[in-house]
Amino acid sequence: MNRITTCILAASAFVFIAPALAQSPAPKVDPAVVEAFVAATWKSTTGDWRARVDQDETQKACTASNNEPTGPLFDQIRDRETAAVIFPADGKVLGDWKKGAQVAQRGTGGQFTDQANTYRGGNCYACHQMSKAEVSYGTLGPSLNGYGKLHRFDAAEARKTYAKIYNSMSVMPCSQMPRFGHSKFLSEEQIKDVVAYLYDPESPVNK
Amino acid sequence: MRIRTSAIAALTAACAVLGVGLLAGGHAQGQQPEQDLSEKEIERYRAMISDPISNPGFLNVDRGEQLWSLKRGAKNVSLETCDLGVGPGKLEGAYAKLPRYFADAGKVLDLEQRLLFCMTTLQELDTKDVIARRFSGPGRVSDMEDLVGFIANKSSGMKIEPQVSHPKEQEMLAVGEAMFYRRSAVMDFSCATCHAAEGKRIRLQGLPDFSKPGKAAQETMGSWPTYRVSQSQMRTMQHRLWDCYRQMRMPAPDYASDGLTALTVFMMKQAQGGEITVPSIKR
User: Fold this and answer.
1) How far apart are CA A74 and CA A69, in angstroms?
2) How far apart are CA B251 and CA B235, in angstroms?
3) Which of A73, A152, B172, B175 would give a disulfide with A69, using CB separation of 3.0 to 4.6 Å?
4) Is B194 a catalytic residue?
5) Alpha-carbon gap: A69 to the closest alpha carbon of chain B (Å)
6) What DSSP element (H or E) covers B234?
7) In chain A, whose CA is at the least distance from the CA of B171?
8) Is the sign of the CA dihedral A176, A181, A185, A188 positive or negative?
């Protein structure tokens, strides 16, 4: 029984080894009709959860452009998302890399079967290689192994990375990477910790 | 009981191998030999669990058969005159052509929606209790899972024949496709984030690519409903979609709602011609 349980736990962990750009054929239906179906499908959803059903401007634009925005739309999304990045008040973007390892590893939280206080993880490993020691990682995103070293542990670079993790689309409109800070899925502290995980010379990412 | 235990033992063995092989090598480079070994192990386990006698899902099929002929509701009649699209009371091949447009309902329905329709109209059964038990759990059987198991089994060995000629069916197909690519919620995910590339796998199970028609979609859609060993229950597509929306951090979709039927129409279309072998058994 134990093995089954372990196996199930392992397999149901929140992991997505996902593809990048989906090739959606041109829309053949009025978006208003689609939204009417969406509304009917979550008719009994109320309260805070309601906001998750509706798309924000950026999700709408990415869906409509098949995640390949061009020209002015590209700039529009990038500018909007850039304006929405909130840096820590004291300007410090590096937290505790050891806590950052948890943020990177864990994929729990935020599901309708979770408690409100269930730990929320960033699950970076689902899409990125980070520490060489962790061999279970996805390949949707680029490898981040040696990331801090690559950026010469530079403070200005770390600030850019904070912005990237806070809002991936401020750098790359319609990225498949979640906008962790923007959606408040991760806290400011968690983002600082994971930036430290990428930038601390002692972190296994840079070993 | 003995037979059932052996299926679970096989799964345990497969999991043990996979636990090492796939968790370690799944998406990392290298580790090829271990992965090949795991593939074989999965194959062996699949062959074994497809055996009707070792698949507990057939208990649901039996219960579903009884429910089909059970008289209940204000009218105290059975479901035996319910038209699932191929004629009143006709079960053979009905599931292979669902979802489809029903003139009496004026819309496209999947099997679960159709059963609820028949319960309400034919039997005049208050479906509140049936809906409350839509997903079985410890000490709670689900009439819907049992009925779907029974009815779908009557299409086993047949090919998936998506119904997309009626304008309403065409609309459902287009809506389903749009919903498949619709990004939302705190992770900005769509179904395509996880299900639009070939040969991806999450540990034990593959992540089927529904972005194009073909084998992946056929094998997947042809194997639902399924007995899920990890949950010790029979599950239908309604439950699978509920679970995927959970992973997407969306709120729980309403049971038997039209959006889920639209998604099913889209996936069945991608699975056209696939062979139905149900109830299957999965992790």
Assistant:
1) 5
2) 20
3) A73
4) no
5) 14
6) strand B233-235
7) A29
8) positive
Structure tokens at B9: 């033992």
Judged by a CB distance cut-off of 8 A, whether residue A119 touches chain B is no
Calculated CA dihedral for residues B21, B24, B25, B27, nearest 10 degrees: 130
Of B28, B174, B184, the CB nearest to A59: B184
Phi, psi of A67 (to 5 degrees): 65, 20
Run of H or E including B18? helix B2-25
pLDDT digits (tens, 9 = 90+) for B217-246: 999 999 999 999 889 999 999 999 999 999
Helix (H) or strand (E) holding A51: helix A50-53
Q: In A, which residues are within 8 Å of B21 by CB distance?
A: none
Give the chain A residue nearest B19 (alpha carbons): A7
Residues A5-20 have a mean pLDDT of 35
C-alpha count within 13 angstroms, C-beta hemisphere, residue B21: 20
ipTM for the predicted complex: 0.88
**How many angstroms separate the CA atoms of B256 and B239, rounded?**
10
**Catalytic: which of B15, B82, B118, B244?**
B244
pTM: 0.88
A19 and B CB contact within 8 Å: yes
Does A22 reach chain B within 8 Å, measured CB to CB? Answer: yes
pLDDT band per the 50, 70, 90 thresholds, residue A166: very high
CA dihedral A24, A44, B143, A7 (to 10 degrees): 60
Mean pLDDT, chain B, whole residue set: 85
Query: Do B28 and A137 count as a contact with CB atoms less than 8 A apart?
Result: yes
Q: Which of A3-17, A109-123, B204-218 has the highest mean pLDDT?
A: A109-123
Q: A129 to chain B nearest CA, in Å?
A: 9
The answer to whether the beta carbons of residues B68 and B79 sit under 8 Å apart is yes
Strand partners, B163: none
Higher pLDDT, B5 or A131: A131
- Distance from A18 to chain B by nearest Cα, in Å? 5
Q: Which of A37, A42, A50 sits opposite B175 (nearest CB)?
A: A37
Place of tokens 């056929």: B218
Q: How far apart are CA B144 and CA B135, in angstroms?
A: 8
Mutant choice from A41, A113, A123 vs B, greatest count of B C-beta within 10 A: A41
